[in-house]
Design brief:
mainly alpha, about 260 residues
């Protein structure tokens, strides 16, 4: 078994191997798009409008390759992402801008913690600190200078609060793209199939962004979300590892990054 960037007993592998973290994917995407420059880059340099889920799929593959792949696989995945980002530039933005990279990275870190807390078990403060510090390894591979990271998890929380109160604001473009995240065009499935995902995403989002996106959050939605909070963690706890996590503990696998 070849060595990876993260040891198998790291908090990063423990958190990211939980399949239920995919329920936080919509939250991360909507938070990313709430930054006007990120929304512009996504809209102008990708097939997001026709295939909105592909961005999440690519992000998952990249994360799994870096976190669970051997060192060669992890570095190759990072190089592939950086090459794509190098071509993404437009009026007032460039995907390799450290500030934009930091925001996108932060939405993934924050959403992973929120989803794990909500559907698996609440992380201790020391575990959050360790997870955040370990995330810097991935972030640096993707072009974020170490000086760009808030030094501690408490500082990171402050950074998230400042971003949500400042440059992060939901524009009409973000709302248009956000609708595709929550109700992607699925040829074989009707739109209502995504309602549970929409409810969970709305519940996980910061309240300010939920309101800016105009997501429904009435009595019915809050009741459905509470039901999810009560049932999903129990289902996760009872699910055997073969179905609950990937890859299985102890398996450092080589992953395709294409």
């Amino acid at each position: 078994m070849r060595e990876g960037l993260y040891p198998d007993d790291s908090i990063t592998r423990r958190v990211n191997r939980e399949n239920v973290l995919l329920l936080g994917g919509g939250r991360a995407l909507l938070m990313q798009l709430a930054h006007p420059s990120v929304a512009a880059g996504v809209d102008e340099h990708s097939d997001f409008r026709s295939h909105p889920i592909r961005r999440l799929q690519r992000t998952v593959r990249m994360t799994m390759a870096i976190v669970f792949g051997d060192r060669e696989t992890a570095l190759a995945a990072a190089r592939a992402v950086n090459r794509v980002h190098g071509r993404v530039r437009g009026e007032g933005y460039h995907a390799l801008d450290p500030e934009l990279l930091m925001w996108v990275h932060s939405t993934l870190v924050d959403s992973a913690i929120v989803a794990y807390d909500t559907f698996v078990q609440r992380l201790r403060r020391t575990e959050r600190e360790a997870f955040y510090r370990e995330s810097m390894i991935l972030g640096e591979l993707l072009g974020i200078p170490r000086t760009q990271f808030p030094p501690t998890y408490a500082d990171f929380e402050g950074y998230m609060e400042r971003m949500l109160a400042g440059p992060v604001v939901v524009t009409d473009r973000a709302r248009s793209l956000g609708r595709l995240v929550l109700r992607p065009p699925l040829r074989l499935l009707p739109g209502p199939v995504m309602i549970p995902f929409e409810v969970v995403t709305a519940g996980l989002l910061p309240a300010a962004l939920r309101e800016q996106y105009g997501l429904a959050w009435g009595v019915a939605q809050r009741r459905a979300y509470r039901l999810a909070l009560a049932t999903v963690p129990k289902v996760v706890a009872l699910t055997p590892p073969l179905l609950r996590v990937w890859p299985l503990p102890g398996h450092n696998v080589t992953l395709s990054t294409s």
